[in-house]
Design a protein that fits this description.
heterodimer, A: alpha/beta, MetI-like fold, D-Maltodextrin-Binding Protein, domain 2, 5-stranded mixed sheet, 3-stranded antiparallel sheet, elongated, B: alpha/beta, Rossmann fold, 3 domains, 4-stranded antiparallel sheet, 10 strands, 19% strand
């Protein structure tokens, strides 16, 4: 608890920005959803045959998991891609259902005698709508807006996955650092926000249905209206920020956050150009799509990942061949692969450092000789992957005392260090390798595909800003696996801010 | 012609049984005509034809001398007051605002609206200073009905339609309102068409009574004449709906006067066995069954 408070105190400014971004995301998306949903629902009540399919469609949208929705929208022009615009599109889609449904319910739920009275008094359809139907449906509509806004507060945390900011950033950062304090630092304000939004709109809803006080009713509508205006004004300002900056992206785990900062700070220092950070994007495909659409200008990819996940080529094991293949594929699609940073983030077969030194183990082949007396522990993924355990055992003739234990990847480092198992497959750059004195055996038969870390940038950006290319090329070959482990360790185990870790490294490079 | 005229009107031609069949009737200015008949006899349809909520399939309806097909529906409806069965006061508007709806639609200046609201509240005997800013749910059933009448009269339309206006009220309130309605009608002299299935109400309020049965006008005449009507369905209707004390029945009635089994069909026991008392006590009579089927 105290660590949580300390985190908030030391990150006050960032927290305020994230809360503001979060509120804006929800407010703008809800406003747009109202502007689309209410007229849509009114239209549906005029064409009853449309109402059911419309609500059905909105229902289906609602059941799509948010992350999948971002995936669907990635290739869509105008609203797709990454950043606030795409996040707003998703949030608007989510907000539509409750608003459409509650508006339809509100209007169709009006006593037929009341509508008949209006028609028989000679109201035109428009007068009926404005004087009778909308005022009577208003409490129900506001109830729908309330649901949409509260759901929006929740969904907006996922917006951080595509670089739209908001409190989800802490949640994702915490998840990648396996640090519950950071997760809570984002989750608690988000929950509080949801409660506040819910309470405020509930108050408004009650006010509106209390028809005793026409004055306060008008006041409530006025308050809601001016809030909406304020939000729209704010959104205008928000949309205008940072034109023409170099945008650096990253995936959503610690190493990538640090690399993103290293790229950003290097560009800032070497070129003086303004740099905008879109770190913590939710995965390889999102980063790739963002690069293609120009939402980001550069991020760090791994050659093996690019080959198999982005270009769908079969895995290959020769690092130089893979690098050249990937560089060609990128070049064909307007993207430039720069010089490799100098380390390979592949699977690392790890043993205890003391054991390796005592027995003089250097390679996996060395270990295969003593392995029959060992126990092994592997993460579930490693046991399943095509480039995982089965092939490894075949390549090196590995056998263990009993079948390998299945364990959580993060826990397996400690299980190895404490002697519960004797060999694990970890991440080559895991900070804990350093912290727990583990030793990475050399893959001397080149079983694992190479995952060399390489910055990839938009060719057009490099053409326009040759100085950016020069700055990034200075990083080529400068980050060793040891450097990366150390930085990961600083961020993961010592809870240092990735930006600070990166700053120390960049300063040392000069 | 300042009234309403139906000429050979048929409605629901496509349906298995017509809702209205060759319906003809003329109601003049200052006249109150009550339409009685079972539910489903087509009474409400007659009213909806007047303000063009529906158009006839055959024949024509003339309001103030003009065919409803030629009327702009909005103009027509603002010239025809409509007091509907379930009152239909707008719950989000005060009493005054409810009454003021049509005057405002017509673009009256606010001071004229306020004056008219006051005048109407006095007409329906609700003290303006007490009731203008009340909300519909703060009124009793009888008060709501009165406001419904006031609202229908707001722009002084020459025609007034009333669909079971006092149907849902207790007998005492109903009688009060009926008295009040007669007083109002004496002052405003509209062409009034009143739909009811309460024969006593028809007798009390109307200058003329029309009896509808399965979409047909089977009898039409003054309240005095109805007791002497010899159409069997009209007789059955009169016998089943009116206490013996109010209508002099002809001596040769089939069976005993009040307790007679006038129905005769099976499954219709609810209207037998003392229908007369039951109805004046105002159970808004599930008056679905009288006469033979």
């Amino acid at each position: 608890m105290t660590s949580l408070v300390r985190f908030w105190l030391t990150h006050q400014q960032e927290l305020a920005t994230l809360v503001a971004e979060h509120v804006l995301l929800v407010a703008i998306s809800t406003t747009i959803a109202v502007a689309i949903g209410v007229p849509l629902a009114i239209f549906a009540t005029r064409r009853p045959r449309l109402a059911a399919p419309l609500v059905g469609a909105a229902n289906i949208v609602q059941t799509v998991p948010s992350l999948a929705m971002f995936g669907f929208l990635l290739p869509v022009p105008l609203i797709g891609g990454v950043g606030a615009r795409a996040a707003l599109a998703v949030l608007v889609l989510y907000g539509l259902l409750p608003i459409v449904r509650s508006t339809i319910v509100g209007i169709t739920g009006i006593d037929p005698a009341i509508r008949l009275a209006g028609v028989a008094m000679g109201m035109t359809p428009r007068q009926l709508l404005r004087q009778i139907e909308l005022p009577l449906a208003l409490p129900s509509i506001v109830a729908g807006i309330r649901v949409a806004a509260v759901v929006g507060v929740g969904s907006a945390t996922i917006a951080a996955a595509i670089g739209a900011g908001g409190l989800g950033q802490y949640i994702y950062r915490g998840l990648s650092m396996v640090d519950s304090t950071v997760i809570l630092a984002g989750a608690i304000p988000a929950a509080v926000l949801a409660v506040i939004v819910d309470g405020t709109l509930l108050w408004l809803e009650r006010r509106l249905s209390a028809r005793r006080r026409a004055g306060s009713r008008r006041a409530a509508v006025a308050v809601a209206g001016s809030l909406a205006l304020l939000v729209l004004g704010g959104s205008g300002l928000w949309a205008m920020r940072d034109p023409g900056a170099i945008v650096v992206g990253s995936k959503n785990f610690t190493e990538q956050l640090i690399l993103g900062e290293i790229l950003a700070q290097t560009i800032e220092r070497e070129t003086g150009l303004p740099v905008q950070r879109r770190l913590n994007l939710g995965g390889t495909l999102i980063c790739d799509r963002a690069l293609l659409t120009g939402d980001i200008d550069v991020y760090v990819e791994y050659t093996g990942t690019a080959l198999t996940a982005i270009f769908h080529q079969p895995a290959a094991t020769n690092p130089d061949a893979v690098f050249e293949a990937v560089r060609g594929l990128y070049a064909n699609t307007g993207r430039t692969l720069l010089g490799p940073l100098g380390y390979d983030n592949t699977f690392a077969i790890l043993v205890r450092g003391a054991e390796a030194r005592a027995r003089g183990l250097r390679t996996i082949a060395d270990a295969a000789r003593v392995a029959p007396e060992w126990r092994a522990g592997f993460g579930y993924e490693f046991l399943e992957r095509p480039d995982g355990y089965a092939g490894l055992a075949r390549t090196y003739g590995l056998t263990f005392r009993g079948p390998p234990q299945v364990m959580d990847l993060t826990l397996s480092y400690r299980a190895l260090a404490s002697g519960q198992v004797d060999l694990i497959a970890g991440d080559a750059t895991a900070g804990l390798i350093k912290g727990l004195d583990l030793f990475q055996l050399e893959d001397n038969r080149r079983y694992f595909p190479p995952y060399d870390a390489v910055p990839v940038a938009r060719a057009s950006t490099l053409l326009r800003y040759p100085q950016v290319r020069k700055a990034l090329e200075r990083l080529a070959g400068r980050i060793s696996a040891d450097d990366m482990r150390e930085m990961n360790y600083a961020a993961d185990a010592r809870k240092e801010n990735p930006a600070d870790v990166a700053r120390r490294f960049v300063e040392r490079l000069r | 012609m300042h009234g309403v005229e139906f000429r050979h009107v048929s409605y629901g031609l496509g349906a298995r049984s017509r809702i209205l069949d060759e319906f003809s009737l003329t109601v003049g200015a200052g006249e109150t005509c009550a339409l009685v008949g079972a539910s489903g006899a087509g009474k409400t349809t007659v009213l909806k034809l007047v303000n063009r909520l529906v158009l006839p399939d055959a024949g024509d309806v003339r309001v103030l001398g003009r065919d409803t097909r030629e009327w702009d529906p909005i103009r027509l409806r603002r010239s025809v007051g409509y007091v509907i069965q379930d009152v239909g006061l707008f719950p989000h508007l005060t009493v005054a605002d409810n009454i003021a709806v049509v005057p405002r639609l017509e673009g009256w200046p606010e001071d004229r609206v306020a004056g008219r609201v006051r005048e109407l509240l006095e007409l329906i005997d609700l003290a303006p200073e007490m009731y203008t800013s009340r909300w519909p749910d703060e009124l009793s059933g009888g008060q709501r009905q009165r406001v419904g009448v006031a609202r229908a009269l707001a722009v002084d339309p020459p025609v007034l339609l009333m669909d079971e206006p006092f149907g849902a009220l207790d007998p005492i309130t109903r009688r009060q309102l009926q008295v009040e309605f007669r007083r109002i009608q004496a002052r405003v002299a509209k062409c009034v068409i009143l739909v009811t299935h309460d024969m006593a109400e028809a007798l009390a309020l109307a200058d003329r009574i029309g009896v509808l049965d399965e979409g047909r006008l089977i009898w039409c005449g003054t309240p005095q004449a109805i007791a002497d009507a010899d159409h069997p369905r009209v007789r059955a209707l009169v016998e089943s709906l009116v206490p013996a004390s109010q209508v002099r029945l002809k001596p040769d009635t089939t069976g005993g006067p009040a307790k007679a089994d006038t129905t005769g069909g099976p499954a219709k026991a609810d209207t037998t066995g003392g229908p007369a008392e039951a109805d004046t006590l105002g159970s808004p009579a599930k008056a679905g069954h009288y006469g033979s089927a």
